[in-house]
Design goal:
Low-confidence stretches: none
Shape: globular
Radius of gyration: 18 Å
Structural class: alpha/beta
Number of strands: 4
Number of helices: 7
């Protein structure tokens, strides 16, 4: 896949296997990036998991809770910390974290995930506040339901799909991964230079309810 991206883009791509919940893997990721390119201009935190069986709060055990929060919040915090140290030295950088529409809109069977994503939104604001003096921007994207492998089992259920799309004013449809890629591209480029500490909702207006 990295070879395909490199061929299509004409850019050098260096793939790194990384468990974002593992501190040593995070250190290695940053090390390889610096050895390969000499600097880090943009960090996108896109790794995420949901509850394995869409548990209700009363059915969610501690191990499952920790798995979600460790991946969706704690790992984001500490990778941002590692990369920010480099960006501060550079006096330039751009951090983009992936949150979710459920950071704002309540949803059943998603409490641990929603809480972690809400934490990402507020954490991103704090990062923007602390690091803006070093010319570092930090924003987050809050996707609605996106048609991916992670959501297929839910979206393939007719009643679930209807319940999900009913509150979406814009065409009552779920999003495509390219919708989120476009949002990330906007936040990564200079045209969004005045955007900092902002949660960008790419959700077809679901969050306006």
């Amino acid at each position: 896949r990295a070879e395909e991206i490199s061929k299509e883009s004409g850019r050098r791509v260096v793939p790194v296997r990384c468990d974002v919940c593992n501190s040593e893997d995070q250190d290695n990721l940053v090390k390889v990036a610096m050895e390969s390119f000499g600097r880090i201009d943009i960090l996108v935190n896109d790794a995420g998991v949901v509850l394995s069986n869409d548990q209700l709060i009363v059915d969610t055990d501690e191990d499952e809770f920790d798995r979600v929060v460790d991946t969706d919040f704690k790992a984001v915090f500490f990778l941002c910390k590692r990369v920010a140290k480099i960006m501060i030295q550079q006096e330039q950088g751009n951090i983009i974290n992936l949150a979710s529409v459920v950071a704002r809109v309540a949803s059943t069977r998603m409490a641990a995930y929603a809480a972690a994503k809400a934490a990402v939104v507020q954490m991103t604001r704090c990062m923007a506040f602390e690091w803006s003096r070093f010319n570092i921007r930090a924003n987050c994207i809050c996707p609605g339901y996106i048609d991916t492998n992670m959501t297929q089992s839910t979206l393939n259920k007719e009643k679930a799909y209807e319940a999900i799309t009913r509150p979406i004013p814009h065409n009552r449809k779920v999003g495509d991964p390219m919708d989120i890629a476009a949002a990330a591209l906007f936040l990564a480029c200079d045209c969004s230079d005045m955007v900092n500490g902002f949660p960008l909702y790419a959700d077809g207006a679901r969050s306006i309810w």
